[in-house]
Amino acid sequence: MTPNGRAAFGSAPGSNIGLRFGVAGPGRVGRTLPASGTGRRPIVNARETRASGPAQLTPGFCPRQTVRVTDELSAAPVAGSTTRFGAVDVQYLDDGGARAALVVAEDPAFAAVVDERTVLVEQVAEYRPGRFYERELPPLRQVLSGVLPLDLLIVDGYVDLDPAGSPGLGAHVADAGLAPVVLGVAKTRFRAATHAAEVLRGQSARPLYVTASGMALDAAADLVREMAGDARFPDALRRVDRLARGATPAAPEPRRDDGRP
Prior knowledge:
Elements: E1 40-44, E2 49-55, E3 67-68, E4 73-77, E5 85-92, E6 98-105, E7 113-124, H1 133-144, E8 152-156, H2 169-175, E9 181-186, E10 197-199, E11 208-213, H3 217-225, H4 235-244
Parallel strand pairs: 2-7, 5-8, 8-9
Antiparallel strand pairs: 1-4, 2-3, 5-6, 6-7, 9-11, 10-11
């Protein structure tokens, strides 16, 4: 623990990932991760929820959308606070809506996903060049609504778009307070993002492009490199992509009163 009572990550058991914190790039200040706080974990039914009303974002304002939950949420006690790692994705639908998905793990390698959730958003903003976050951020806020705070969140895309710190989706997610540490993992190279760390996984010769807010970039690259799965794309990120495309979330595993499966 740090002097202010907040949890500072070291290496997770069974992993050589050292979560080192520092400045993650121009304009993105490194932060120490808070403990989860309540010590309780929400258990989400295997079906998806539906958000009522349009998901629109007024420039400069990030409203928390109202979510009408169609499946009951419950909470199971766990012993002590648990570090929570999440990954999100959004798929846009032909009818003008979107499906946002979330997977949650309790280790940085995402070796075991403990929660899955999807939210169907009936309407999202139109795409505007240079303002993609206005379209993507509201569905992400909705799928995270009602979920216990995450210590680290991975998004599909970039945190910063260039070495000068021009904000990408991940920067807006961090600035909205959705997680104290945000990693961007992109499958394709963005020409201006020359600062992004290139991460090779498995047998692939095609890198992933990693950017970060709240974590040193080399530590973020190590985390992505050592995430579970032998393929170029980590298993957890492949899973959240499938959920966003319409796969049914798995029912959560029951937990004992002492927090063990």
